[in-house]
Amino acid sequence: MNFIQGAFRNGKPLFSRVRRAAEAGLRDALDFAFPRSCLLCGNGFDEGRWLCPVCGRRVRESAAAALHSDPEDFPYLAGERHFDGLAACWEFNPDLEQCVHRIKYSGMERLGRHLGVLAGEILREKQILGTRPDAVVPVPLHPVRRRERGYNQSERIAAGFAGVFGFSVRTDLLARQRATRTQTDLTGEERQKNVSGAFRVLRPDSVRGLTLLIVDDVVTTGATLNACARALKDAGASSVFGFALARPVLRTGAGTD
Ligand SMILES: [Zn+2]
Are 89 and 49 in a shared domain? Predict the structure, then answer.
């Protein structure tokens, strides 16, 4: 019995189930490519975009693009700092929170690229980046987490961001060698311990003397960026900067989040 015969055996054609699944997949794919309603307000619109004109404008105008490089810009980061500065496009607001959640947990990887492009355009317009990096390095996911998610959101953001400036993206330099628990519920100190030693440079010869820009979706305490920067600096990178879509609103005197 070949596959075709087997598919129609028992009267219940396997193909109809396969077709239904394929149709559903195609619908999802089309929705992802050309959403029919705004991700933030839900209003329908015709153009193949992610956000309606009103929300798109609000997101663009809420950008607080800045380069943070003073120690007091990282009040939650205890101990030695290994990175040289962080450029972030937004202070975390409900719009960004929703977008980042969609990128990470709703499979909307192309939204990551879209926001990466938008952030790149805004940073370029405001001339935030002073140094041209030799390469952009997305924060790697552990292979198991990457398989579960199907993609690394930081790579998608990095691709959009780097494309605006013509920077090259390198995913072959850094790896996450230890699966770490999600940082969301951890204090600043716990976050540092959680990611300490989690990253490994795959090609130490290739990073020596380079200026690198690490890309992450959100930087909260800077612990992940710091752990990546430490690994890269130990391998001989000369400067390591970070870029994130969003960082928390800085409140002096606030406790760890
Ligand atoms: Zn909207």
Answer: no
Phi/psi of residue 21, nearest 5 degrees? -65, -40
Give residue-wise pLDDT tens across range 125-153: 999 998 899 999 999 999 998 999 899 99
Distance, CA 2 to ligand 1 centroid (Å)?
Answer: 51
Q: pLDDT tens across 161-190, in order?
A: 999 999 999 999 999 987 776 767 777 777
77 and 160 fall within a common domain:
yes
DSSP structural state of residue 166: T
Whether 98 and 144 share a structural domain: yes
pTM confidence score: 0.82
Distance between CA atoms of residues 16 and 151, nearest Å = 29
Residues 6+ apart with CB under 8 A from 138: 152, 154, 155, 157, 158, 169, 171, 214, 215, 216
Query: How far away, in angstroms, is 95 Cα from ligand 1 center?
Result: 10
b/e string for 80-111 if b means 16 or more Cβ within 10 A?
Answer: ebbbbbbbbbbbbeebbeebbebbbeeebbbb
Centre of ligand 1 to C-alpha 101, Å, is 16
Least Cα distance to 143 among 179, 110, 190, 169 occurs for: 179
User: Does 81 reside within a domain?
Assistant: yes
Centre of ligand 1 to C-alpha 60, Å, is 13
Q: Tell me, yes or no, whether 1 lies in a domain.
A: no
| CATH number, domain containing residue 123 | 3.40.50
